[in-house]
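new request in #modeling-help
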Amino acid sequence: MTWWQRFWRRNKMEEQLDKELRFQLEEHTNDLIAQGHDPEEARRMARLALGGPEQVKEDCRDARGTRWLEDLLQDGRYALRMLRKNPGFAAVALLTLALGSGATTVMFTVVNGVMLKPYPYPRPEKLLWLQEKTEKATRQGNLWGYTYPNYLDCKKEIRSLDVAAIRFSGGALREPDKAEYVNGREVSSEFFSILGVNMVRGHGFSSEDDRLGAAPVVIISNGLWQRIYNGSPDAIGQTLVLDSKSYSIIGVLPASFKWADQPNLDVFTPLGQDTSPALQRRDRHGLNVVARLRPGATLAEARTELDVIGHQLAMQYPDTNEGRTFIADPLRPNVGDVGSTLWLLLGAVSLVLLIACANVANLLLARAVSREREFAMRAALGAKRSRLARQCLTESAVLGLSGGAIGVLIAAIGIRPFVAFWPGSLPRAKEIQLDWRVMLFALAVSLLCGLLFGLAPALRLPVRNLENRIRSGGRTVAGHSRRLHGSFVVSEIALAVVLLVSAGILGRTLLRLSSLESGVNIHNVLTARMELPPATLTVPGQILPAWEDVLNHARRVPGVESAAIVDTIPMREGYNQITYWPSPALPPANQAPEALATSVSPDYFKVMGIPLLEGRFFDDHDRKGSELVAVIDDVLAKAAFGAQDPIGKRLWIPDTYSPFSDGPTGADVVRVIGLVGHVRHWGPAGDDDSRLRAQFYYPFAQVADTNLRRWSEVSSIVVRTTTPPLNLVEPLEREVRGPTGDQVLNEIQTMEQIATATLTQQRMLMLLFGAFAGLALLLACIGVYGVLAYLTSQRVPEIGVRMALGATAGNVIQLILRQSLGMIFAGVGLGVAGAVVAGRLLERFVAGVRSIEPFTFAAMVALLVVAALFASFVPARRASFVDPVKALRQD
Amino acid sequence: MALKSDLPQGTLDLLILKIVALGPVHGYAIAQRLQQVSRDVVQVPQGSLYPALHRLEYRGLLAADWKETETGREAKFYHLTRKGRAQLETEAADWERLTEAVGLILRLAEGGSR
């Protein structure tokens, strides 16, 4: 029999035990009678020989090994009975716990879904992410995307991995009645098999497809298949026109497929067919490389192999690969600063849970004191201390688990609204579900809470002076628990201070950041990425006229005031940079100062509302052949020329990054013609701390012919409107479609939307920290109130004596308030220390936060002290109404 | 009963296993037999016999079933499991070795002190 069988059949076993002992008694008695004893005497002797039958039975039960389970069940039942008998206590405790654990479970569910869950590919732990790594770091760090030749060499040499490369792509998809922009990737043929994805229709790429000159083929997403082909199986073999090139559809992906965290990828084409020359160069980085460990291979082996290959290539191609090697890391969700936001929130919500625990511990402790007589009685009857402690802990565990169960219920209901409430889009939002990890977490948290608040009453169990305690009941020993109660209140207040100050810091930060000027006039500006047809891009001479044509069409749309093209948009992802020097004596290559570089058409400053401080903007005369010109912001002016007037000065642009040439020219000389205000490119929060702030604008018309194509591929169109900009999206799209109808807008956003998105993290944190801090304040006040009410009620006789001796109501209120002030100040002291630490954390993980703000500290602490004093005033006032006569008679 | 404390730790289990090894037997008979065989030197308090039996049963060294005695009453008869027999053999061998060793040392002490 296993122990649980024994446990389930324990009733039958009890019967048998009883029968066995009865048999023993009877046999012994019979023997004794046979030996000549009197029957009565024989029975007595037999019983004596056996010892107390109940004691023997207990020992036998102990021998069974299921004792703990039986006790647990008994204690559990007892605990539930106690809860039912005290519905008020149960309701308050459960509600407090449910709020705390519900909020914690919701946060953990989000953390789990967004960050902890592996990607939904088969055996995700075998998937790796490869990058290039250099010995020297640049501003972007020392990790790089792969170059195609490096990828091919790694693939050829490596034994422990299957590898696949991925490159950004996408383009205008021609449909019967319109064109739409679709995102996609160029992938090497092994990509889908490495991820373990099977097509629902057709088949994946073969190695035949993955080379120059092969027949153009495409794999489409399930969404695109439904959208355009209504899910018809005939789609396989049909032709898809993408950027004016025809592809034959060979496969359809399952609806569940997603590449890493990239949403909306609709077209996949073989990377090997890409003819762009940049792909063949060993100095053009940017490929993503994913790999799967071959059976039996380990990550360490793969890393060693990659390192060896890296060294070989460095020797073979010193120009490009010196000091460069390859690294592998497990493929894990990368969710950017959402990660730190979520951890901060989980931390905050845990503090709320701790406060809830302290409250429940208070309640339990107060109850334990009033149950002291019961426990003393049981101890006197022979219950071991450990047994009583176990019962206390079981009771609190039952409480914790019930609270946790309600918490999970709250989480189940609340998780969808919470995710929907998240501003912007939460990465991997679909992965956020209550799964076994969440359940395990909730269970662990509930049990931990139970242990946490059950410990105090359990440790206070009576061991000595049982008699006194039975006689006295709870009242006279209240003093023993006063310090413990006090320490709970202190810690609650400390935790509440931490949350309140954090919320205050975030609130101030948000206020400060939103009041900062972005440097552009964000109202009534529409931005969109835009692509010219590939046919146009191949002929440099056609590119500028094509853009001019687009702008002319855009200006024709009613409501458009001005229009411009630009390669990077303020506060949106992406930037370009140059290095500059104010004299021809150039410093060593990596020591020249850097600046953000933006190529614009002349009306750009007008569209964005960037103020001209001095000089002039660009005009149509700034074109190829005329003198190279630039407009700079005040930051660059100050860095390059100090207090001197920058207008008319010259800047030397080293050829490494120069847009004006694509070859070794040494440096291009540019004349500064205008000075404009600084634009917070990195958003209000990040800009002050960014090291790359200086801004350099140059005319798109002066970009070297060889660079024009690349510049055009990343360009956007911006228009200033006289009406709400989103109303103009449709007419604008119609107007700029171009002669072939292939020119489509994508990533359409207003500048207001872009600016708002920069503060998403701060706003979300502030809102939730605010909510948590409010909850914490409420719970802490309830705690203060509860403890003081309890302690005061224990002191009623004392107060009675004082009043009988002449104390006034005012004296009594003072007495009680003094007691609470002591606790409040101790809590505030600890809390401020904690808040300093919390502030440092926020400063580190949230852009724009200044952690030490005395005003915020003072205001928040004052708020808490007032609230806590108010909470303690109620019991104090009640105490002042004590009738001395009744109080003295009470016992 | 007086000899309870004189039984070295674990000896009771060994004795019970040995008695049970002689054939299926109920608890009362085990106590009787221990007393008889040891000529009244070993008196096992019945209060510790039953917990010991149960412990051995739940450790899988003994098994039990309900059978009729010669007098026609139902009693719980214990018998040795295969695991119990192996345990008895090792424990008995250990015991032999131990007593032998203790005996040797005791005899040595008589002559060696001079």
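bot summary: The radius of gyration of chain A is 38 Å.
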